[in-house]
Specification:
The protein is mainly β and 115 residues long. It has no helices and eleven strands. It has strands at 4-7, 10-12, 18-24, 33-39, 46-52, 57-59, 67-72, 77-82, 91-99, 102-105, 109-113. The strands form two sheets. Strands 2, 4, 5, 6, 9, 10 and 11 form a seven-stranded mixed β-sheet that branches. Strands 1-3-8-7 form a four-stranded antiparallel β-sheet, with no helix packed on it. It is globular and about 40 Å long. 29% of the residues are buried.
Length: 115
């Protein structure tokens, strides 16, 4: 089984930056898919960014150009670097992984973008 622990959320001013971390209990190099999702109040959970074990990345249009997903395999950690944050980025951000047909979720970390 895989455990995912997010950290790095908090309160940030519009235009500010945050780096979210997701530490996995297993080797992320063996995981076919890792991603960051977010869910704002009243909204469905949406995929923000993802990366495959081949290095292919995806970003939703809302964050493209301002967000980068990357990994540190030695630390079994995936990061979400968020720059030029906007109020609409306020949400609970969840780390997600998929391997062998199984899906794992972290507990979520709150990001609040407000002046």
């Amino acid at each position: 089984q895989v455990q995912l622990v997010e950290s790095g959320g908090g309160l940030v001013q519009p235009g500010g930056s945050l780096r979210l971390s997701c530490a996995a209990s297993g080797s992320i190099s063996t995981m076919g898919f890792m991603g960051w999702y977010r869910q704002a109040p009243g909204n469905q959970r949406e995929l923000v960014a993802s990366i495959t074990n081949s290095g292919t990345t995806y970003y939703t249009d809302a964050v493209k150009g301002r967000v980068t997903i990357f990994t540190d395999n030695a630390k079994n950690t995936v990061y979400l670097q968020m720059n030029i944050l906007k109020p609409e980025g306020t949400a609970v951000y969840y780390c997600h992984s998929a391997i062998d047909g199984l899906r794992f979720w972290g507990q979520g970390t709150q990001v609040t973008v407000s002046a």
